[in-house]
Design brief:
The complex is a heterodimer of chains A (115) and B (116). With 115 residues, chain A is an all-beta fold. In chain A, 0% of the residues lie in helices and 49% in strands. Chain A is globular, with a radius of gyration of 13 Å. Chain A starts with a strand and ends with a strand. Chain B has 116 residues and is an all-beta fold. Chain B is 0% helix and 52% strand. Chain B is built from no helices and twelve strands. In chain B, the strands form three sheets. In chain B, strands 2, 5, 6, 10, 11 and 12 form a six-stranded mixed sheet that branches. In chain B, a hairpin with a 2-residue loop joins strand 7 and strand 8. Chain B is globular, with a radius of gyration of 14 Å. The N and C termini of chain B lie far apart (41 Å). The chains are: A mainly beta (115), B mainly beta (116). At the A-B interface, strand 4, strand 5, strand 9 and strand 10 of A face strand 5, strand 6, strand 10 and strand 11 of B.
Chain lengths: 115, 116
């Protein structure tokens, strides 16, 4: 069990560019979550996958954001036409629905800076 | 909608002493879970302890214990025998049980500094 991994760990981009982040969950975890954390705040929920199905999206997830989880394995989060307000830490978490309390395990995050 | 409030932005404690971090939440749900997560500087978030709302007994994990007061909607974390490695941001989080998703709702965090 290698834990949740995220790549890249850091991304600096210019406003208007597109960026894509990747999350590899703990193997056999069928649930995957994306959160966004800005400085001085707790993480805020963005979206949720159960296997390959995206079951919920937060209103925080504007139409510039898209997430996928092909084949129910890794997930990608793409931000198009980045804005300075998108600068944040993007966290991925995974869990297994077989666990009664559905404890979520977090990755190290991808820190995005939009110049 | 559920909300989680952590009213202590920063706290400090001497090594080997005991410290209590506060958390209150607001919900109309009866079945839910509460969590404390720890986020060390520049490191990933890890679970410290969890509590099922249907359990009256307070959860404990080694030096970490909670005081869960369901009626008061309070969920405080007590860290005994504080160690330098406990220095981190601590987040309280709420999860509704049985919803379509099990998303976590976090408070704003408490930055704990353990002083040598």
């Amino acid at each position: 069990d290698t834990g949740v991994s995220q790549n890249p760990r850091h991304k600096i981009t210019k406003r208007g560019q597109n960026v894509t982040f990747r999350c590899d969950p703990i193997s056999e975890h069928n649930r995957l979550y994306w959160y966004r954390q800005t400085l001085g705040q707790g993480p805020e929920f963005l979206t949720y996958f159960q296997n390959e199905a995206q079951l919920e999206k937060s209103r925080l997830l504007s139409d510039r954001f898209s997430a996928e989880r092909p084949k129910g394995s890794f997930s990608t989060l793409e931000i198009q036409r980045t804005e300075q307000g998108d600068s944040a830490m993007y966290l991925c978490a995974s869990s297994s629905w077989t666990q009664l309390t559905d404890t979520q395990y977090f990755g190290p995050g991808t820190r995005l800076t939009v110049l | 909608a559920q909300t989680v409030t952590q009213s202590q932005p920063e706290m400090s404690v001497q090594e080997a002493e005991t410290v209590t971090l506060s958390c209150t939440y607001d919900t109309s749900e009866n079945n839910y879970y509460l969590f404390w997560y720890k986020q060390p500087p520049s490191r990933q978030m890890i679970l410290v302890i969890r509590q099922e709302a249907y359990k009256q007994q307070n959860a404990t994990e080694n030096r970490f214990s909670v005081n869960f007061q369901k009626a008061a909607k309070s969920f405080s974390l007590k860290i005994s025998d504080s160690q330098l490695g406990d220095t981190a941001m601590y987040f309280c989080a709420f999860m509704k049980h049985g919803g379509a998703t099990n998303k976590l709702i976090f408070g704003t965090g408490t930055l704990l500094a353990v002083q040598p």
